[in-house]
Amino acid sequence: MSDQETVNSISRKGFLVKLSLSLAALSAVMASIPVLSALLAPLLESANEKWRTVGILTDFPEGTTKLVQFENADPKPYAGVTARSAAWLRHNGKNEFVAFAVNCTHLGCPVRWEDTAQLFMCPCHGGVYYKDGSVAAGPPPKPLTKYEVRVNNNEVQIKTSPLHITNITA
Amino acid sequence: MKHPVPPNAKWSYVFGSATLFCFLLQVITGVALSLLYQPSSDAAYQSLRFITYQAKFGNVLRGIHYFGASAMIILVGIHMIRVYITASFKYPREMNWITGVFLLLFTIFMGFTGQLLRWDSNGVWSSVVAAQQLGRVPLIGTYLARLLIGGDTLGGQSLSRFFAYHVFIIPALIFIFVGFHLYLVIRNGISEPPKSGRPVDPKTYRAWYNKLLKEKGVPFWPDAAWRDIIFSSVLIIIIVALAVIFGAPQLTQAPDPSAVHASPAPDWFMVPFFALFALMPHNIESVAMMLGPLLTVILLLSIPFISNRGERSPLKRPWSMFGVICVVVFVLSFLIVGMHAPWSADFKAKPLPLTVVKQAEKDTMIAAGVHLFYTKGCEYCHQISNYGGLAGPNLTYVGERLNQQEITIRIVNGSTNMPAFGGVLTKDELEKLTQFLSAQKR
């Protein structure tokens, strides 16, 4: 091969190498965008929280704590029963309500209300809370998380919320 | 198959291949289950019930997959302990150890996600617990938790995610790492049984090992492999027999996050962690939850770097052996304690019968105290005459330790891990309860 042909051959080869690598990289990036989007979808979407009616005023006598169930904001159509959340709703009197998430602040297990003992008790690691949600005993690092509650036209409503995660700072 | 191996590699060497055959059993039964399972949040539980109660041999199939999973965790542990005891992680097999540590982590993750796929109430609450643990990672904890459950709340997308982890992503990683692990075994050879006074010297080991194989090596098949085949065959027969006799784990309630009367319990291989979280001091918990696994993994991965030469014989490595014994004792102890869960309220405790309490028949105050002992929740945590929970001290003879006034102070003000009941009991109720308790003597 002459020098000119060699130079042409090298530049053609070099161009083809660059072209093939670039196209491979481009195809990988293009394919990976929706893949990464599926993987990271939970961080890219955020639900618009909604007010859910859990009952009417007369359903909740003063001084009682009752379990209420409601649907999460924007559940998937195939969520089935997992679309539900629950809260312990306490009527403190004069239409003042407080709604506690059922999740223990230790590791998220569902707490149950023991009415005669007036305590919330967690079945997992011995966590206990008083009726105002403050920690009575066991490993929970902070009080029960609260949902926003309102009374709207005689209906008691709870605002949906993301699952509250206890961080290392708790 | 004719690849030569050291002549004395005998029964203690079967556990690696047993783990592999167990994994293949899991893949095959997993594929079979996927023919019957509905990986959708609204249908998964129903499909599990179909598999368990209606599909021909469905319960046995689930049982094989469950006992196979348990066998994998046990075998991975035994294999790792055997490798560590014989220091087979030393030169030139360091990478074998490192890939093995990753395989251990993948196996545990598979066990965890597998339980979740039952998608019963245990599965749902286990997901929440895992998310809360991830939440303890500084700065990004909440994001990691949301990534795990696939959104802001548990829901339809959570099961899809766990299904993808359990069926596609982690098995793909396992296949890749097992392939590499096996390639390294063939490349570096099966380690010869260690001998005291014969340390590993990286400069001379390979030549010495090749000489050993040339002079004394036996063909892998059938001289060594027959033990692997027999052990794995017997193992699979035992797994199937267990599945036939005991069936699959019971399904708990439907996966409803609003059904609060659940007592979440992980499968047995996660119970030691469950117990550890219950028993560790509360104020270090968040840090321990985050750093504990991280430091454990770093330590395991660093073992070949700490010591990749020198003596391999367990007789010359007493501290290593002590470490193994400690790990086994700790894990077994936490497992046994976790099975009893003495830190949790016993919600199934039956009311203390009046017939068990001597004075109750004659003394109406004491009889009323017995009734309050149950209705006010004391019995969930305290035992009297074998009735009640284990979370708090046994009160069968509490009257010998504390007088009525001391008992009153304790009940009103609470104590470590005991709530204060002062705001819950009336004066009359307190009097009845403390009279009953202070009368409890031999």
Offer a few descriptive terms.
heterodimer, A: 170 residues, alpha+beta, Rieske Iron-sulfur Protein, 2 domains, 1 helix, 11 strands, 25% helix, B: mainly alpha, Cytochrome Bc1 Complex, Chain C, Cytochrome Bc1 Complex, Chain D, domain 2, two-stranded antiparallel sheet, 62% helix, elongated
Topology, please?
The complex is a heterodimer of chains A (170) and B (442).
Chain A: H1 3-44, E1 51-56, E2 65-71, E3 84-93, E4 96-101, E5 112-114, E6 119-121, E7 128-130, E8 135-137, E9 146-147, E10 149-152, E11 155-159
Antiparallel strand pairs in A: 1-11, 2-3, 3-4, 4-9, 5-6, 6-7, 7-8, 10-11
Chain B: E1 4-5, H1 15-34, H2 44-53, H3 58-85, H4 94-117, H5 121-134, H6 141-149, H7 156-188, H8 205-216, E2 218-219, H9 220-246, H10 271-279, H11 285-306, H12 318-340, H13 364-375, H14 378-381, E3 383-384, E4 387-388, H15 398-401, H16 404-413, H17 427-438
Helix pairs in contact in B: 1-3, 1-9, 2-3, 3-4, 3-9, 4-7, 4-11, 5-6, 10-12, 13-17, 16-17
* Share of β-strand residues of chain B: under 5%
Q: Which of globular, elongated, flat, extended, rod-shaped describes the shape of chain B? A: elongated
Low-confidence stretches of chain A: none
**How many structurally independent domains of chain B?**
2
SSE arrangement of chain B, N to C: EHHHHHHHHEHHHHHHEEHHH
CATH class of the largest domain in chain A: Mainly Beta
Helix content of chain B: 55-70%
Rg of Cα set of chain B:
27 Å
Largest sheet of chain B: 2 strands, antiparallel
The residue-averaged pLDDT of chain A reads 90
| SSE order of chain A | HEEEEEEEEEEE
Give the count of structural domains of chain A.
Answer: 2
